[in-house]
């Protein structure tokens, strides 16, 4: 054995907490047992600590507001801050009008040369060429998850430079295409009925000052998301296709999903984000909190947590965007001019642990599932990732459940000069993160000269 982690309380997804040692060999978990020993093995004393599977962010947007130089900087900075926060794997979005046969190898190289946590990609279906080449993306690039941006219908040309329409025709074309390639493929959908959004926005045309966070929710209330969820899940059922609803934000959506007769929990997966679980339109950063879908209200926070408890919402993604305050408002401090999104990947696990365990009554096992195992299962990574099982990658977080801290922009070396979560008190923090058996973060700092992250090729069984 290379390493043995001794005396920890191991939080095993779908099983529970087990007091045991973890032996690691060649980056894999080799054995779980009591009083394990091996001459020459490094010993890590985890007495008094809980050991979780490494957190997985299934929804990140590294480098989205810049060129390849910015993308490289994002991997350098954000993977390190995320490692300190317990992250060991990310699934980053790649979207452009280029052929992904050209772009993916470039982004893979940037990720491996600059990042320290493992990664793979979702690809945005932005052109007909992408649809036609999908089979080669699966076989040659190992990419099994794709995204349709229904929330940007009507902005295809101005925002992305493509003439394809992000509409129901494209949705059904993608479902059909997936079915010809592999039943392991997953379509992620940004659910937002933009026509309904236009209607609601008109209702406030008489209000002179709308540059407040609450109005973004008024323009796009929960029903705008929920209607799309009802429709896209129904179509997925008709096509017998796998889908994931990303960044679920609304109480109405949880209520609808709980009652939909065609909601298939085996093939339909629902993600929410930390900001929808703990933040509202009353956030003091005001327009800094502009994101699609909008931040909402405490009733929505409560409904999402109930959705997690009931197994309706199954995993957490961050929708992370690295952006400084001045960059977000480069076109003006106005609700319809500011850039969308904000950072927060590095705080995902601590926020969900603190709020979920201490304030919402979630078990530690459930937290391990929604921050890691369920994400891995959704995106064809399990049990390589997201598991504490013999043969799985030794991606592990040692956590001090009693350790407290207050979030500030300087708490971790984040790629931003502000945080939406600033001032939030967290109880329960990672004190060590291992990725494939290597300690990459310890006591609030990354390990100097840690080896690089690796791109994960995901296998898909052909039809």
Walkthrough of the structure:
- Strands 1, 2, 3, 4, 5, 14, 15, 16 and 17 form a nine-stranded mixed sheet that branches. An eight-stranded parallel sheet has the order 6-7-8-9-10-11-12-13.
- It is an alpha/beta fold and 463 residues long.
- Helices cover 34% and strands 23% of the residues.
- Strand 11 (242-245), helix 9 and strand 12 form a beta-alpha-beta unit.
- It contains 14 helices and 17 strands.
- Helix 2 (100-114) crosses helix 3, helix 3 (128-141) packs parallel to helix 5 and helix 8 (222-239) packs parallel to helix 9 (251-259).
- The longest helix has 18 residues, at 222-239.
- The model has no long low-confidence stretch (mean pLDDT 96).
* Tally of alpha and pi helices: 14
Helix content: 25-40%
Write down how many β-strands occur, each being a DSSP E stretch of 2 or more residues. Answer: 17
Strand composition percent: 15-25%
Brief account:
With 463 residues, the chain is α/β, with parallel strands linked by helices. It contains 14 helices and 17 strands. The protein is globular, with a radius of gyration of 21 Å.
Summarize this structure as a short list of keywords or feature phrases.
single chain; 14 helices; globular; 8-stranded parallel sheet; alpha/beta; 9-stranded mixed sheet; 34% helix; 463 residues
Tell me the layout of helices and strands:
Layout: E1 3-12, E2 16-25, E3 28-33, E4 42-45, E5 50-53, E6 55-60, H1 68-84, E7 87-94, H2 100-114, E8 118-124, H3 128-141, E9 145-149, H4 156-160, H5 168-181, E10 186-190, H6 194-202, H7 213-219, H8 222-239, E11 242-245, H9 251-259, E12 268-272, H10 274-278, H11 298-309, E13 315-316, H12 325-328, H13 348-359, H14 364-378, E14 396-406, E15 425-435, E16 438-442, E17 445-446
Helix pairs in contact: 1-2, 2-3, 3-5, 5-8, 8-9, 9-11
């Amino acid at each position: 054995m290379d390493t043995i982690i001794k005396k920890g309380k191991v939080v095993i997804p779908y099983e529970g907490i087990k007091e045991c040692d973890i032996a690691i060999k060649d980056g894999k978990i080799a054995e779980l047992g009591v009083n394990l020993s091996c001459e020459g093995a490094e010993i890590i004393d985890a007495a008094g600590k809980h050991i979780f599977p490494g957190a997985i962010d299934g929804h990140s947007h590294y480098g989205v507001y810049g060129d390849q130089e910015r993308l490289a900087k994002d991997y350098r900075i954000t993977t390190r801050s995320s490692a300190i926060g317990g992250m060991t794997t990310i699934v980053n979005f790649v979207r452009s009008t280029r052929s992904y046969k050209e772009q993916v190898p470039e982004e893979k190289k940037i990720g491996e040369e600059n990042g320290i946590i493992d990664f793979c990609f979702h690809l945005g279906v932005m052109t007909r060429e992408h649809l036609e080449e999908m089979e080669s993306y699966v076989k040659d690039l190992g990419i099994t998850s794709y995204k349709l941006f229904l929330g940007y219908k009507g902005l295809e040309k101005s925002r992305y430079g493509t003439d394809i329409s992000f509409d129901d025709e494209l949705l059904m074309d993608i479902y059909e295409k997936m079915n010809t390639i592999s039943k392991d493929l997953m379509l992620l959908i940004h659910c937002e009925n933009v026509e309904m959004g236009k209607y609601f926005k008109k209702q406030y045309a008489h209000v002179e000052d709308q540059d407040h966070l609450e109005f973004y929710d008024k323009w796009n209330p929960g029903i705008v998301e929920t209607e799309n969820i009802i429709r896209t899940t129904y179509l997925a059922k008709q096509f017998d296709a796998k889908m994931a609803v990303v960044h679920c934000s609304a109480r109405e959506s949880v209520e609808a999903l709980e009652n939909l007769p065609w909601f298939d929990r085996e093939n339909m997966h629902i993600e929410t984000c930390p900001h929808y679980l703990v933040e509202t339109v009353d956030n003091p950063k005001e327009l800094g909190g502009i994101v699609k879908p909008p931040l909402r209200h405490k009733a929505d926070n409560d409904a999402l947590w109930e959705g997690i408890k009931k197994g309706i919402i199954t995993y957490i993604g961050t929708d992370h965007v690295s952006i400084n305050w001045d960059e977000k408002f480069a076109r003006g401090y106005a609700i319809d001019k500011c850039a969308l999104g904000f950072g927060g990947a590095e705080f995902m696990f601590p926020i969900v642990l603190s709020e979920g365990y201490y304030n919402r009554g979630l078990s530690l096992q459930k937290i391990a599932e929604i921050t890691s195992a369920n994400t891995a299962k959704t995106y064809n990574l399990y049990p390589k990732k997201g598991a504490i099982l013999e043969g799985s990658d030794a991606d592990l977080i040692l956590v001090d459940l009693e350790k407290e801290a207050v979030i500030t922009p300087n708490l971790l070396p984040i790629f931003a000069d502000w945080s939406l979560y600033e001032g939030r008190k967290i109880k329960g923090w990672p004190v060590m993160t291992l990725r494939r058996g290597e300690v990459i973060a310890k006591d609030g700092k990354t390990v100097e000269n840690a080896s690089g992250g690796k791109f994960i090729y995901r296998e898909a069984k052909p039809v």
